[in-house]
Amino acid sequence: MSFTYPVLYPASLVAQANGFMLSNTDNAVAVTAESFSELDAWYATFVSSCLQWQGKARYTIALNGTRFAMHLLLLRQYWKKSPSPCQRLHLVVFEEKPLSREDFVIMGACLFPGHVQAQVNELASQWPCVLPGMHRIDLEQGNLTITLAYGEKRRMLKNIHASIDAYILADSCSPAVLAQESYGDWLRYASPQVCVISRVQDESLLRQALKIEGLVAGETRMGDEGKYLALLARSGRPMPVYRADRDRTALVIGGGLAGSGVAHALALRGWQVKVFDPAFAHAKSAGQQGHIAAALTPMLSIDDNFRSRLSRAGALRAHARWRDFPESAIPARCGTLELSRNKGHAKDLIEAVKAMQFPEEWVRNVDGAGASALAGMPIDRAGAYFSAGMLVNPEGLIRILLDSEAIECVAARVAFLLCNEQAGQWELLGADGTVQACGHTVIVACGLQTLSIMQESGLMQQTRRSGAVVPAMPKLNTLHPMGGEVMHVPAGLVKGGPRCIIGGEGYFLPAVNNLCVMGSTYRHNQYAPCTSQQGQQAILAKMPVALSADLAKAVQNNEIGGWAGMRAVLQGRLPVIGQLDHAEGVWIAAAYASHGLTWSSLAGDVIGARLEGEPVPLERDLLKAISPR
User: Fold this and answer.
1) What is the DSSP letter of 303?
2) DSSP secondary structure code for residue 44 in this structure
3) What are the angstrom distances between the C-alpha of 56 and each of 53, 74, 194, 218?
4) Which of 47, 504, 538, 615 has an alpha carbon 20 to 30 Å from 140's alpha carbon atom?
5) Are residues 577 and 455 located together in one domain of the fold?
6) What are phi and psi of 281, to 5 degrees?
7) pTM (2 decimals)?
8) Residue numbers of the domain that contains 530
9) 20 plus 125 within the same structural domain
């Protein structure tokens, strides 16, 4: 058995007479109530003068652990009171044994002075559970972000996607770089102008690593009685320029879950966005009218494969972005009971939960009795309960995502793109060749039509320097439709419905407006799906609970309504999210298959982060797996 990640264990927070200690880290770290004041003094006399964030659009700092979140609070404090701060501050923290949410709350209530308690509580409310991967916290209206990289540190250092402007690798609470890493690992993604704060005794190692990375050491500043240094270095490379530095407008093709997720993420970053979809002529919930409920449920596999890791990242982003959405979009945050079955990704579900050892607040195994108690109805199978499962109204969700003064919805169909080389922009054209809009940044997020737009735009091939014409995105050729339908069952026919989402061969959702959704069918290459008695009978056969004869009779009499829709599916069942290598400014967000809710916010934040020069909330290997290429 192989794992993408080793099991991730939380740090053990041990209370002491005058503070706390993390006891199971490689180097035990202790802290007292006075430590915050001591570290504050270090920032005031040394660190704050070394950080070169003045007047910049963005500044990214990497940290070797949070030190009980003290660094996070102090960096926020000094950034806010700087006379000329960067517009956006990004903190990236690497933790092999992170604090659990429960321990963070305990620690936060005892360790910090009263004047920072409001910020501690705000941070605690968003502190992630101990799961491997990237976790992002947005503060100060998104102008301050914290990316927590949980996992084997050396591996995560290689897998981060960021340009780091400063490193804080040692302080009075901790050693500098640990034995299993090297300064080279840390400096792999250093920006062309970088500041590194570490121990004086490591200066020669640091200079050697800078040289290997092509950085020339310059000014050196000493602090704290000669124990620490700040070494400034630069390379001959120019500072990166991002699209947000030149233009903050975007054109999104497609107003469904994919397009609305991207538009929402960009609008949160201050972009002006136009979204094109012919369905806007009828409603703002493009293509999801009548889709009253669907489920967002993380996946779990025994090898923690790409799909599982992407699903986890997507669920985490959705919870972060939708946390304050109203009931019209998120009817219930009720959790999902995923029942064991004989095939599919859930075949080894119970064993996977045991093997991965994720926190019970994320997923836990339950027996039949426990499953019955969670569902509020008899269940004769064991399974796993995901507390992050959400009941979502797709129609209401899209309305909320697009409800921004920065987003304009245009009822028009885009047939193809054309590069206007003279203007340096992309033109969006209708089938008759009429130019509907032009811009530097275009995101094609229109499901199955993504393929036809790429084909009509001549973007499925690229010409190499040799003159050879080669396929540019061969995997996109496997994009095809998969139709599906669901039933809308009156809650009275199923004793009010379940208390939580139930997944098995099919799924059974809690009531929304006195209707319970049951699903679903999956028919490859079905271009025009519709509801049918045959489909409803197939759905009933998948239900993991006993149902009344009255429901079967109602289906037989064509008394049950429903909804049908089409999914765009790629071979391998991964989405396609990223910029085209051969067409700068054109991005794709498509092939979400049955996981539109899962990928929606994640794709938006991945694309938004790339355009803005932020740390990307997804690892490099996953970005490569979902890239158009």
Assistant:
1) T
2) I
3) 6, 19, 14, 20
4) 47
5) yes
6) -65, -20
7) 0.95
8) 334-390+480-569
9) yes
